[in-house]
Each structure stands twice: as C-alpha cells, then as structure tokens.
Amino acid sequence: MPSSVGNTFKPTKFIPVSTAACLLVGSTTLFFAFTCPWLSNAISPAVPLYHGVVFLFVLANFSMATFMDPGVFPRASEDEDKDDDFRAPLYKNVEVKGVQVRMKWCSTCHFYRPPRCSHCSVCDNCVEDFDHHCPWVNNCIGRRNYRYFFLFLLSLSVHMVGVFSFGLLFVLHHLETLSALHTTVTLVVMCIAGLFFIPVMGLTGFHMVLVARGRTTNEQVTGKFRGGVNPFTRGCCGNVKHVLCSPLAPSSNALLCFCRYMVDPKKKLAIPIKPPFLRPALSDRNVTVKLSDNGVHGSILRTKSKISLDGLGEKNTDTQPPLPPKAERHNQLQSQLTSSEESSISSKPTNPPTPAVYRYRPSFGTIPKVHYHATGEKIMMSEDSKSSAILEERGHDYRSEPNLDLPDYGTAPLHRTFQSSPFQLDSISTTPRSLSLKQGGHRPEHSPLGGRKPDPVISTPHRGVFSPGTLSNRNGSLSYDSLLTPSIAPSAGECATHPGVPTMGFHSPFLPTKMCHVRGPELQGQTIVSPYSPVRTGLIYGRHSPHLREREQERERERDPSPVRYDNLSKTIMASIQERKEMEAREKLINRHGPGNYANDSGVFDGCSRVPPGPCYPDGQRGPGSRGYGSRDNLIGVGLVGYTPRTPVLRSAASSLVRAPRTSTTSLHTDAGGGGNLQYRSPAHQPHHSPIAVPRSPSYSHQKVSFISSRERAESPHLGTREDLGQGKVNGQPQGQARDCHLGAPSGTALSPSRHTNVKKVTGVGGTTYEISV
Amino acid sequence: MAETHSLQDLRQQAAIASKVFIQRDYTSGTICKFQTKFPTELEARIEKQQFEETIQTLNNLYAEAEKLGGKSYLEGCLACLTAYTIFLCMETHYEKVLKKIAKYIQEQNEKVYAPLGLLLTDPIERGLRVVEITIFEDRSIGSR
Predict the structure, then answer these.
(1) Mean pLDDT over residues A669-687, rounded?
(2) What is its EC number (chain A) (predicted)?
(3) CA B110 to CA A369: how far, in whole Å?
(4) Which residues in chain B have their CB less than 8 angstroms from residue A233's CB?
C-alpha cells in the first residue's frame, strides 16, 4: 500500500484492508476446502476450476489495486513554485475541449492540480484522475490503478455470486445434515457472501455507470458535471475502451510497486554545459529593452514560466494567474525584473550593455517624461553610437539631457544633444529596438511605446537601477565624460552601441544616474529621471533575460511620466546644468575608482569609472547605489526593493526615497501633466548645488518619484509592488504584501507614504488602494 | 577520472540562471501534451522554430505512448490472463515509448540545447506535468 514518505505508521488504517483480505481469502479457502470436493464430484470438476480462476483474478486485481501507484504527482520542486506560493491565485482556469475547467492550487504539492487531479488527504498526495481513496485496499484509486480496481469489483461480484450459488446448491443437497461440518462451513461462507453481496454489487453497478459516463467517483459525488457537459468523456464505448484497454501509465515514483519505469542514472550521460553558448540569430531582435520590474523579487521562475505561457491565451492559462491586465503586466515586469536582477548579479553580458533609458510614456500627456531605463533595455544600441539614442529616445523630455549624454558618444555638447535628440530619436527608431526612447518626447504617449513595441527588449541586466533618467543622465555624463576624458566616451558608446558588451551595460546605468544627481535638481528631467532611472534601471538591471517584453516596456513607459522636459528649460539653465554636470562628473571620477564592486553591475561601473559615482548617489555610493536610490523611488519602490539586496546602503537611501514618492504619487495623476511638470520644474530651478547632496537627491527624487509613482501607481499598481501584485492577484489567496519584504527592500511598509503630509487613498488598477501623499 | 573531473569542472562553470517550465496543454483533455508556446525567457537563447519542433516531437511521442491500439489491447489481455505477472517480465508499450522519449531528450540536449546553454529535463521526473528547461547563465562576453 503506497503511502507518502514521512507518514507515520498507523495500524488503524490497515484494519479495513486486513479485514477485507482475510474475509476474502479465508472464505474462499473454506469454500474450496469444504464445498468444492462435493461439487467436483456431484456436478463437474470444472466448477472448482472455474472458481479457482475467478478467485485468482480477484486476488490479482486486489493486489494491483492495493499496491499499485495510482498516479501520484511528485511534489513540485522549489524552483517551480517559487512565485506561486506567494502570489498565485487559488484557481486557474483552463479550457478543456471547450469547457472551462478550474485548476486549484495545491498548497501541499505546490502546483496547480491538473484537471481531474485531486489531493488525497489520507495519502497526502495529489493523484492523477483521482477517483477515491478506498479503505478496503488502503490505497487511492487513480489513473493507473482504476482499471484494476474496477476489475476487482467485477471479479469479486462474480466470485461472490458463484460462491453463494454453489454453496446454496451444496446446502440444498445436504439439508438433512445441516449440523455437519461441511454444511455448517458452507452456510457460514454463504452468509458472508450474502452479507457483502449488496454493498459490493452496489459499488460495482455504480462504477459501471461511471465508466460508461466517463466520470470519476470524485466528480460524481461532488456533482461537477451535473447538468453540464463532461469534457473528459469519449463516448460510452470510448470510455469503456479507455478504462479497460489503455496502456499502463508510467509512475514517477520509483518506490512504489509495479513501477518499472525508472530513470536509470547510469544511463543518463552528464551533458557538459559550459559557456560560451551559442546564441540564435538576434539580428532583428537585438534591441530588446528589457524592462526590469521594479523590485520584483528574484524567484520569478514560476511567474516567469507562467508568464511565458501567458501567450497561450487566457483560455488555457496555465501560467499566469488571472490578474487584471495591468497586473499581469506588472507581474511580468516584475518577474522580469526579478529575473533580471538576479541575472544581473550573475552578470549576463549577453544583453547590450548600454542601459536603455527607458522612458515611460506618461499616461498624462503633459507629464514630463521620465527616462526610464528598463534594466533590460538596452536601448538598442545598435552598433552605432546612436545607441546613446536610447537615452535620447527617452529623452523626449530629456531631450536636452539625454541628448547630452547619449546621442552621440563623445559628441555631446549640450545643445547638440539637445538638438540631436530628435535625431537620435529618429536614429534610434531606426534601430529596431532602440528603446522607444526615440519616441522623443512629443510623440503621443504611446508612440514611444509603439516604437518600442516592435523592439524586443534586451535586458540589460546591469542596469537595474537606472531609471531612464539615469540613463539619460548617463548619457549626459558620458558626454561629459567624453568631453573630459575621451576614453570614456568610447566605452559609453560601446555600451550604447554594443548590446553585447556587458560592461557597458553596467556603467551606463550608473553614469546617467550619477549625472542626474550631479546635475542636481535643476535638471528637472534629469533629476527626476534619476530617481526614476535608478529604479527603473534597477529593475532593468535585474533583468538579464532578454525576455523583457515589449509589452512590458510599453507599460513601463506608460507608467513612468517623464518628470522633466529639458526642452522646457531655458538655455541658460541648461548651460548651467551642464557646468554642474561637468563638475560633478569630475567629482565622480575621483570617487569612482573605488567601487567597482558590483560584480556585474560594477562592470558597468568600472567601465564608466570615469564618472565618479559618489556624488551622484545620495548615500554617496557610486552608481550602484544611486541606482537603487533614484529608481527605486520611481518605481514605487519596487525597483528599489529589487536592488536593496545589492546595496544595503542604497537601500536605506532608497527606502527613504521610496516613501517619498509614494506619498506623492497622487500628485502625479491628479495633476496630470501640468502638475507633474510643475513639480519637476521647480527642482530644476533650484539653485544648483554642485555637490550632489544626498538630501537633495532624495527630495528631488522624491518629487519625481512621487510623480512617477503616482502615475505608476495609478496605472499599474501591481507592477510597482509585490504587494500590489499580491493584491491584484488575490484570488482567495492571501495578499502577498508581506512578500515584498523578501525583496529586501523596505518592502511594503516602506512603500506606504510616510513623509508627505496629505495622504490620499487612491484606488489603482486591480482595486489596490494606494496611499498617496498629496 | 580526469575526464570526469574536467567534465565536472565544466559543469560547474555554468551556473543556473533560471528555469522555464513548459506546462501541459489540456485543451484536448487529459492526454499528455505540452504547450508549444514559446516562452519569452528563451527568446534570446534559442530559435522559436527549434523549440517548437522539440515540443511537438515530444507531444507526438506521448500521443503514441497513450494510443489505444491493438498492441495495448493485447497487452492488457495478456496481463489479465497471466494475473499481471507478465509485468514482471515484459515492458509495457508505454514504457518503451518513454525510453524512446528519454533518448530523444538526451539527444536534443547534447546536440541542440547544451550548446545554447539550456537543458531539458525529462517530464517524467516531474510526473509528466511540466517540461523544465534550465537556462544557464552565459558568462562569456561578446557571445552575441
């Protein structure tokens, strides 16, 4: 009798099976011993022979039903269920032959139960095609042993009928010697047979009907298909054939009896897997901007896999829990983020290094765009220096800013970039995936997205924290750097241009971030960007896998309003900004040489060593730090969360920042474009403080973040936070808010608006309520 | 030994980056069939065509295993007649196809997936619920 591992030995559960076995074997033995001799003499020797065969059949089927693995699903491995445990909705719908069937999440086995599968509490296993748990055989009846159970019932019924009939015949012929031993024994056997006749026959008849209808006991008893259509039926004949003639399914459990299929470890050859790996031709997919989710936790495996299966269609959703569309998006993004984050750590150099400044198209038309860099976004830097365009693209707000940096590596005069931004945008647009940044600020909100859409997102693992702004900043800084130190430019350019250069990816995100900070608040777009960018970048950063979908990009784009529009700034301001940038860049350079500690991320960093990371980041950390810092806020803390594991310092900084944005999120969407702009503008006009003060950035980012966060929140509540996701997804499952904590960031609590005064509750997509400080 | 050691070294070189799980496709009922949708995580690692071909071949093999044909009927009858003792000696049709599938997966891994930094896991190890594809991180720079 199969039992799950770890079950304690309970003698009581063996009582029914022992009783049944004893009665069966005992009675039949007595029958053979006392009745059959006379029968073979009086009637025919065929009678005992017949009974012998039938009894053998009964025993064989009884043994098979008792000892055979019913079709137990092994527990899902940890990798498979990482996400689902926290955020998975309780049910998932799947369409089977046109009928919607609900798959329930099994919390014990950690997977969604396939159709017709059920969890047996006695055996503590999920059983395929679960019929029922039979105490008489002390085993579940499922796919693999249903036939034997059914045949056992049939044969037992036949056997009982036979025993009773021939016993009766015996007794009738020995009425005068009823007290004789043989007769007595025969009478006893007859009584037993007669006693169990009705239940057994009843059960047999019941199962005959079930087989004919193609249902399991479980389905019949729970009334699943009462009045409805049973999608699993194959017609009466087909069902009977399926039960009786289908091949014996394999068992995954090698411990259970009758499982002859076992994976032979000897025969499995170890396949060496070592890099470098081939890559499919990605010529037309290079520019994939990977949107990294903000702070999506790492274990996205499940989510990811689920997400990847999303495309299968809602009908057959095996993967994504039925979240609202935005939530899904976010989930995906998050998952991607998480994965990208993780991957970033593992340094996936495959993605174009240049962090794409991903600018989210603000949903509100006027809202300044934030350059959001999806971690994965590599803004396609196609081989040309235009890659900087990535940033630029984004920069439609940033035009001036990103242009400075990105558009041309090494060229970058401010004004130039400024002007060139449109070009770059265009140029970028030419590159297939160049980050939709190209969209250039003034396109309709969705155009950037649109531009991006076709482009696959290249996850820039390293970017992670860089928000689009950062990227643009970076570009700016790059440009500065290039001005200052020509050597940098090539690297920057390299990053931008060569997706394959991992290092680039690293530092590009950092650079811009730094630059953002360097510029200080006066750069509206920039500063705003930086907070966002780090967040975004972080997200992006995390995501190495190039599977950031364009969809997600779009969403991210939509979510992030670009806070600053450089084109709005006066030239003088821009000039001053630039000066400041230069100064800060120099500072950074000085500070930069230390860090490079981020494995993958640092790669970028090192590459950009020129740009001193220090000043840029609020907590004085270099790029990586800033990454988390700014972008986190922007990403509503999601990105932040993602990064926290990397840089604890950043985390603290970021967390503080995170709070800020949250509180002011509403401002964004309440104010729509104008308000946001105003907010952004103001910092820009603040007196420049050349050193990047930590406080400055936080506040700055704060504002920006708030802007973005509000926007993001409004638009995609789920994306930002795991908790949101959890909320969005809830389907009977507990909200996953607590989970955000595991991201390492301040987590959900940090997200709640703290600093700002007026806290407004806004209901975002999916019904999640956000507290926004107005 | 040295060879094994080096192989191990090689294996140790590639760390697992992530895993993708290809779920079952239940649109045709409970027959064993996997979804052929191309997961986004693999977009940069393998051609869609190749992936779909692999999954489709697996689906076809499983369909063959579960087919209710003359062979499976005869097997059932024989098993019945021998009180299922035949299972101790003979391999069922399903098991034979499963071995074929294992061989196919092994071959695919060696020829196609390992060079791409991927590894397919036989779904039987997961109870025929998912096809697990392990994505190994690619540390080589400029591998693109």
Answers:
(1) 41
(2) 2.3.1.225
(3) 48
(4) none
